[in-house]
Write a structure and sequence with these properties.
heterodimer, A: 359 residues, alpha/beta, Rossmann fold, Helicase, Ruva Protein, domain 3, five-stranded parallel β-sheet, two-stranded parallel ribbon, 13 strands, 48% helix, B: 726 residues, alpha+beta, six-stranded antiparallel β-sheet, five-stranded antiparallel β-sheet, 16 strands, 51% helix
Chain lengths: 359, 726
């Protein structure tokens, strides 16, 4: 089942000259600040990962929208580099409000999922301290801003469900004690699309917890050449820093976007209508959940803000909907072209959405 | 599932081909039908129709498959021409062969030949046309031209109502007083429109309604134009007789009027027309004269109906579906009286005739199209003058040019005419020696006294039958007397001509208002022109006659036909019986035209309103109205948002042409989508609002640079361009 969505010009995030030439009405200060933060973060990651601008945008959207992403790609295509660059671009500043866990939380962690991994390897566990003569909790790798869950389909369902629970609840419970994860907790999971032997494929309900499932294509020739050319300089830059954003800046950006970017009823109507059409379509075995739509709203807001708007418009839906729904829809046997199904189901609600503005 | 999908797709493409192909085949076949209907039998027409439909389907479905796909266009055309030649040859053999006619009967053999011929003809021609259309773009235009010309040819033949085929259309229209050409033209317009639409369907689905509307409006205006101003009237019938080869009734208009077989007495009683007098009138000379035309131009051998425009301007030589009048009023109106008659022609005539000096003809509804070939009202200014009014006048019209005058004075180069005339005029009393009218009467008197009336025509094959008559035995019929007198008048400088028409004795009128004209009443007479009076009939009446010219006036038939022509009640009943079943067509047409006009005006009104609305709107509505105005303008130019396309995508699509439209779209969406928030009203900062009007102007400026003028003019003219704006 190919989840690639056709129509590149829809998924790319365009920066048309018209948008820059005359910004219709100025954005509020808070929103402008948020945009600046996102742009800085984007630049920081882009300086490390070349030729993946589109994926980086989506990952940042997911990060700010409080979602998680599933990358589906071949080994060595830059997944880890991306996740690491993202983690390193976020720093903790001393002016953070005091938090018990803070000392234990680091910007970036990577977990390599293997069949013999145990849930406690991910969450952490109680360890007996002989000196103090009591158990104390040793934090697992989930206590980070950005967690790279590499080859998540290679581990047992037990670990997978522990991982996915943490993603959903933003907390882990070990020995009846609940430990909250960081507010920024963000998981980038990966899986290899081809090498399926000895894996435990994630079932659709679990896939539902990821905001996006991103299929990465090989980067183009020039970008690939550029990667080789700039390898050394980028390695050095990653050590000595460069542009960074703080965790609190990101959280503030998330708040102000949530507050300032409007989602009109017409847009929500369109989303609901599209979902209903998809569920009723005979080419679709199982439609998308209500949760997917709820998760999508913040993502739409972030994308609108990144495009310099303080309202969500049809353009945002067209860009994000294929990304959000591709892994949530189960097509009927024999149907392969998800893009076509989605286009058919989107047409009427999107037309209605466009028409409402003239009423 | 997949299989289902592809099946559905296949079915979709199949139906989308069958529909246009079928429609196109029907339209082209209809043009064959129209073309063939006046040239062949019913079966032949059906064959032409069938052949065309078959050929269209065959070409459309086979042209892209192996056997045909590999052939070049020339080969296909050559094969079609060969096939046509063979088919026509075969048809001719079938028609001509005695054996086949014996086998199935001559009628069936003829029908078979016709069917074969037309089937082959339409099939081959359609194959060639359709193949060209499939292979090359100009072929489609050829096809449209073919359909249009088929209708035009038929339409041209219908001018003047000489050809009534197809009868059901002609009868339908004529019985309601409508010109059948309008109906046929409507058919033609419809056919050409549909074909043009089909042509465009294959290229661009979206432009179709737009272009169709514009073309429809053009055709509609053409129909309206013809309705109000009519088509130009042809002056004369041509040699092919396309505009009227109806056989002439009474007086002949053949090449040589002396060889018209008037001596055949068998059908002298045949009724040719019935006349209803609408006004009281009693002729001076004891006979009603009905003037149809005149021989006035000398062609070197004898007098003929003039070909020139500047002769006989007092005669109307064509039938009209409406009303026709002579160009110049007749002289001395105080000596004349207007008489209206209604003429019902029982035999077809080439030109209308009217009492004595007709000045106007008006078509009237035919009360019984089975009986009357043609019915019309003729208005005449009949002369009321007496001898005193005519004597002492000079001949000819001082307004005539020398050329016109000379034309009325030409005669055969035979000196005997002048000698004889001079001899006759020697006896004239001195006080009248120079008076034209007195001279004319003297010559008439000579012929009256010496001429012998006979239907025997012994001068027919002489070089100059009039000379042969006049200087020979003086025995002949009206044509001889008329020509001889005219030549003598012309020889002494009196402008003269031979009038043609009917002369019916007053005694034939049985007291009612109707008068029956019979074949025997066909007559020719000399006329002279007097200044201030016009053409005057000076008819010789020979005192001796060898034939009994009296026939039964058939009073009862006269009564019956007159009643039939007059009977308004039965006429109304007839019209009602025709109209009972359907709505009154004229009214419906007018209502339709009115409704269309109203729609047109309403369309323009709405269009104008939507364009001007942003200038007068309140500030909080301007984002919506000015965006709509711009969308209207772009839509008229063919730039429309596709179904399901977002506003931003549309703006991006045309951003190369007008970048400012992107700005306007964003501003519009911001206002529209922010206002409909989570039930909470988001305050809009009016002070911060952009200048919508300025932006509007800028966009129009940008568009103007990219769109050619003709498209902008079309967009401006289109009254319904705003309908597609969403």
């Amino acid at each position: 089942m190919s989840l690639e969505v056709t129509g590149e010009e829809n998924t790319a995030i365009p920066e048309t000259p018209a948008q820059e030439s005359a910004a219709p009405a100025a954005l509020s200060a808070a929103l402008q600040q948020a945009c600046a933060v996102l742009e800085r973060l984007g630049n920081a990651v882009k300086s490390q990962v070349i030729g993946r601008d589109e994926v980086i945008e989506l990952v940042i959207i997911a990060l700010v929208a409080d979602g998680h992403v599933l990358l589906e790609d071949f080994p060595g295509s830059g997944k880890t580099t991306l996740a690491k660059a993202l983690g390193e671009a976020i720093v903790t500043t001393p002016d953070n409000d005091s938090n018990d866990n803070l000392s234990a939380i680091v910007p970036f962690r990577r977990i390599q999922f293997t069949p013999d991994l145990l849930p406690s390897d991910v969450t952490g566990g109680a360890v007996f301290d002989a000196n103090a003569n009591h158990f104390h909790f040793r934090h697992g790798p989930l206590f980070a801003y950005v967690v790279l869950a590499d080859e998540i389909n290679r581990t047992s369902p037990k670990v997978q469900s522990a991982m996915l629970e943490a993603m959903g609840e933003k907390q882990v419970t070990v020995d009846n004690t609940t430990y909250p994860l960081d507010k920024l907790f963000f998981v980038i999971a990966t899986q290899n699309p081809l090498d399926m032997v000895g894996t435990y494929p994630l079932p659709t309900p679990q896939l539902d917890r990821f905001l996006f499932k991103i299929t990465m294509q090989h980067i183009d020739r020039d970008a690939e050449l550029n990667v080789l050319e700039t390898w050394r300089s980028r390695r050095d830059q990653s050590h000595n820093g460069g542009q960074k954003v703080t965790r609190n800046e990101l959280l503030r950006a998330r708040e102000s976007i949530d507050r300032e970017v409007q989602i009109s009823t017409a847009v929500k109507t369109a989303l609901v209508d599209i979902s209903r059409r998809l569920r009723d379509d005979e080419r679709v075995l199982q439609g998308n959940s209500t949760r997917s739509m709820v998760l999508m709203l913040p993502a739409l807001q972030v994308l609108a803000a990144m495009r310099g708007r303080d309202y969500v418009s049809a353009d945002d839906i067209e860009t994000l909907l294929p990304r959000v729904l591709a892994h949530r829809i189960e097509l009927a046997p024999g149907v392969t072209d998800f893009g076509r199904v989605l286009r058919d189901c989107m047409q009427e609600p999107m037309e209605q959405l466009a028409r409402t503005t003239l009423r | 599932m997949q299989a289902c999908e592809t099946d559905a797709m296949k079915r979709e493409t199949a139906t989308s081909q069958i529909l246009p192909t079928g429609l196109r085949a029907l339209i082209i076949a209809a043009s064959y039908w129209v073309l063939s209907i006046s040239l062949t039998t019913e079966a032949g027409s059906i064959a032409a129709f069938t052949g065309c439909v078959l050929a269209c389907f065959a070409v459309d479905f086979l042209i892209h498959r192996p056997p045909l796909a590999r052939l070049r266009l020339g080969v296909i055309a050559l094969a079609a021409v060969l096939c046509l030649a063979v088919g026509i040859a075969l048809a001719n053999i079938l028609t001509a062969s005695i054996g086949f006619a014996r086998l199935v009967g001559p009628l069936a053999a003829y029908e078979t030949g016709e069917v074969l011929e037309w089937l082959i003809f339409s099939a081959c021609l359609s194959t060639v046309l359709r193949s060209i259309a499939q292979r090359a773009d100009f072929g489609k235009v050829l096809e449209i031209l073919f359909v249009a010309s088929a209708f035009v040819i038929t339409l041209a033949a219908h001018r003047q109502g000489m050809i009534h085929r197809p009868f059901f259309i002609g009868d339908f229209a004529l019985s309601r007083g409508i010109d059948p050409s309008s109906i046929l033209m409507a058919f033609g317009c419809g056919a050409v429109l549909s074909l043009s639409a089909l042509l465009m369907i294959e290229h661009n689905h979206r432009r179709l309604p737009y272009h169709f509307t514009v073309l429809g409006l053009l055709c509609f205006s053409l129909l309206i134009y013809v309705q109000f101003f009519g088509l130009p009237t042809p002056r004369l019938t041509d040699d092919m007789g396309l505009t009227g080869t109806a056989p002439t009734g009474g007086s002949a208009q053949d090449e040589n009027p002396f060889r018209d077989g008037q001596n055949d007495t068998s059908d002298m009683q045949t009724p040719v027309a019935v006349v209803l007098f609408r006004d009281d009138y009693e002729p001076e000379g004891g006979a009603y004269y009905f003037r149809e035309s005149a021989y006035s131009e000398f062609n070197g051998q004898l007098l003929v109906v003039p070909d020139r425009d500047d002769m006989d301007e007092d005669l109307i030589d064509f039938f009209t579906p409406t009303r026709a009048e002579i160009n110049e009023p007749l002289p001395s109106p105080d000596l004349r009286k207007t008489v209206r008659i209604t003429v019902g022609m029982l035999a077809p005539h080439r030109t209308p005739f009217g009492l004595d000096t007709p000045v106007a003809y008006a078509n009237t509804p035919n009360p019984n199209s089975l009986r009357f070939k043609q019915t019309y009202d003729a208005f005449s200014m009949v002369p009321q003058y007496n001898f005193g009014d005519l004597i002492g006048r000079s001949s000819g019209d001082p307004d005539w040019t020398e050329e016109q005058r000379q034309a009325y004075l030409q005669l055969p180069a035979d000196p005997r005419y002048k000698q004889l005339a001079d001899t006759i005029l020697q006896d004239l009393r001195p006080e009248f020696a120079d008076d034209p009218y007195a001279k004319a009467l003297a010559i008439k008197d000579y012929l009256d006294r010496n001429g012998i009336y006979s239907l025997k025509n012994e001068h027919a094959y002489a070089d100059d039958p009039a000379a042969s008559f006049l200087f020979g035995d003086l025995t002949g019929y009206c044509m001889h007397f008329a020509f001889a007198a005219t030549y003598m008048y012309r020889s002494i400088g009196l402008p003269a001509r031979v009038g043609i028409g009917y002369s019916v004795p007053v005694s034939n009128r049985a007291g009612g208002s109707s008068l029956l004209i019979q074949a025997i009443n066909g007559h020719a007479w000399p006329e002279i022109y007097l200044d201030g009076v016009g053409w005057i009939i000076v008819d010789p009446a020979p005192s001796r006659t060898l034939v009994d010219m009296s026939v039964d006036p058939q009073n009862s038939l006269q009564q019956l036909l007159g009643d039939m022509l007059r009977d308004e009640a039965s006429f109304d009943e007839f019209i009602e019986s025709q109209q009972d079943s359907t709505l009154p067509l004229g009214l419906v047409l007018r209502a339709l035209a009115g409704a269309l006009l109203a729609l047109l005006l309403a369309g323009y009104a709405v269009k104008g309103y939507r364009q001007r609305a942003p200038y007068y709107a309140q500030a909080d509505q301007r984002y919506r109205l000015s965006y709509r105005a711009i969308l209207d303008s772009l839509g008229a130019l063919g730039l429309r948002r596709r179904y399901g396309e977002s506003r931003e995508s549309f703006a991006r699509r045309i951003s190369a042409m007008t970048p400012s439209f992107g700005t306007m779209t964003r501003s519009h969406l911001q206002r529209a989508l922010r206002q409909q928030g989570d039930g909470e009203v988001v305050s809009v900062d009016m002070a911060n609002d952009i200048d919508w009007i300025a932006l509007d102007r800028q966009i129009r400026q940008e568009v103007r640079q990219h769109i050619p003028l003709w498209r902008r003019v079309l967009a401006f003219l289109n009254p319904v361009s705003w309908l597609g704006t969403h």
